[in-house]
């Protein structure tokens, strides 16, 4: 990416949509791991807006199929407004979560911005989970398992219509990568909606390069690329600090290749980093890995490329 890229960090310190406590500490862990400094070292213009504010986690059981719906809605309204403001200012918003339910507000704002600008949208959902549950099929009621379904129009009105009337996304605008844990009812719903899913078996068989070539196919200069990066996308061997670990995720190098290929498109325009749980981490190791991957997402490559060699010659 070009060095003139301007990014804004927006903290959303809540675990109100999750089934385990601790993701509320994620934004600070990413700051401690040096996210802003790492991006500045790449030549980016970085502003940290600090943390948004919202209701505390009441830690109550599900009601009507949803846990903490009013609180999740309040946090997502704050996220939506903050992300939308940065997009209108021509900056790249980076949401520091917090749990993955916050993507409802973040992607809702991105989708609204794209509609207003007449741009196409592509969402890469990097996650161990499909997050396509509804109140009728959820085993837990935790809203961090529902954001993709909500964004596609399947959910309570106060979340579905957060970014305007109607669904924020069409299933054809989403590519899910790294999936390896899907609930039984959710699996049927994913198939029914024809969601494009590159699960771990696909990655094992085809390799990360072919997977990303397919997931990124068709991007053009009119496409806004949003990456929603759930840290549990990574194998827990390298990223233990998440509330819902699922073995068998991408290795460090596979994850780096994924990020580098996204960077190569030059289209990244907004980002979520979610579900980092320092309470379950080892000396902030997962946050440091996340920062390294985000560096790659913004153009830092492991190896010197041929065009760099030619420039030096």
Automatic annotation (TrEMBL):
It catalyses: L-arginine + H2O = urea + L-ornithine. InterPro entries: Arginase, Ureohydrolase, Ureohydrolase_dom_sf, Ureohydrolase_Mn_BS. Binds 2 manganese ions per subunit. The keyword Hydrolase applies. The keyword Aminoacyl-tRNA synthetase does not apply. Coiled coil: none annotated. Pathway: Nitrogen metabolism; urea cycle; L-ornithine and urea from L-arginine: step 1/1. It is an enzyme of class 3 (hydrolase). It holds the Pfam family Arginase. Mn(2+) 2 binds at residue 232. One of its GO terms (cellular component) is cytoplasm. Belongs to the arginase family. This is Arginase.
């Amino acid at each position: 990416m070009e060095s003139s890229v301007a990014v804004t960090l927006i903290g959303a310190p809540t675990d109100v949509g999750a089934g385990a406590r601790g993701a509320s500490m994620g934004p600070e862990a990413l700051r401690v791991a040096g996210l802003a400094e790492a991006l500045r070292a790449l030549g980016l213009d970085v502003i940290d807006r600090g943390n948004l504010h919202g209701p505390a986690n009441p830690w109550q059981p599900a009601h009507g199929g949803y846990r903490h719906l009013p609180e999740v809605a309040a946090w997502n309204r704050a996220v939506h407004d903050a992300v939308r403001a940065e997009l209108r200012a021509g900056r790249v918003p980076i949401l520091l979560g917090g749990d993955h339910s916050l993507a409802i507000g973040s992607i809702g704002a991105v989708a609204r911005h794209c509609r207003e600008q007449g741009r196409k949208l592509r969402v890469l959902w990097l996650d161990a989970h499909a997050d396509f549950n509804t109140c009728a099929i959820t085993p837990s009621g935790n809203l961090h398992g529902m954001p993709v379904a909500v964004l596609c129009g399947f959910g309570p009105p106060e979340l579905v219509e957060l970014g305007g009337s109607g669904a924020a996304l069409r299933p054809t605008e989403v590519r899910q990568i790294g999936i390896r844990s899907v609930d039984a009812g959710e699996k049927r719903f994913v198939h029914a909606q024809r969601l494009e899913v590159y699960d771990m078996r696909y990655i094992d068989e085809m390799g990360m390069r072919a997977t990303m070539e397919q997931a990124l196919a068709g991007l053009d200069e009119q496409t806004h690329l949003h990456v929603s990066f759930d840290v549990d996308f990574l194998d827990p061997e390298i990223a233990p600090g998440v509330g819902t670990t699922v073995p068998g995720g991408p290795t460090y190098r596979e994850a780096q290749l994924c990020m580098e290929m996204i960077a190569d498109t030059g289209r990244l325009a907004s980002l979520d980093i979610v579900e980092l749980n320092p309470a379950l981490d080892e000396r902030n190791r997962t946050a440091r890995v996340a920062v390294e991957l985000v560096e790659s997402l913004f153009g830092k490559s492991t190896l010197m490329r041929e065009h760099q060699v030619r420039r030096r010659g």
